[in-house]
Structures are given as structure tokens and as C-alpha cells.
């Protein structure tokens, strides 16, 4: 599942668990919501790394062109 899907599904499970008194379902929802948050942080880190790599590549290409 995607980041947002995990977050939303997790919240729904938490609410269902709270309404029914099912602590296992509530905890499962909490874990799923955290999983979505982690996916978001990973996606951000990958994007930043890709941007940095692109910047280095561009600088190297400029240096080669000037040489």
C-alpha cells in the first residue's frame, strides 16, 4: 500500500478498535499509520538523494564541457 493509504487505513482501524473496544485492532491501526509515515520519510530521503545526485552530475558535466 502507499503512504496515504496506510495512514488512512490505520486511522480507520484505530477508530474501529476504539469503538468496539478491540485493543488489538487499535494497535494494528497505530502500526499501520506509523508504517505510512515511515514510507513518507523514506520517499522524501530518496527524493533528496536523487536531487543531490542530479546536482553533482550537472556540475560534472559543466566541468567537462569547460575543459
Mean pLDDT: 95
Strand content: under 5%
**Residue ranges: pLDDT <50 for 5 or more in a row?**
none
- The whole-angstrom Rg is 21 Å
Total separate domains? 1
- Count of distinct strands: 0
Class by SSE composition = mainly alpha
- The number of helical segments is 2
The helix content, as a percent range, equals over 70%
Give structural notes.
The protein has 67 residues and is mainly alpha-helical. The protein has one domain. It is built from 2 helices and no strands. It has helices at residues 3-20, 23-66. α1 (3-20) packs antiparallel against α2 (23-66). The termini are far apart.
How does the SSE layout of this entry go?
Layout: H1 3-20, H2 23-66
Structure summary:
This protein is mainly alpha-helical and 67 residues long. The chain is built from 2 helices and no strands.
Keywords:
single chain; 67 residues; mainly alpha; rod-shaped
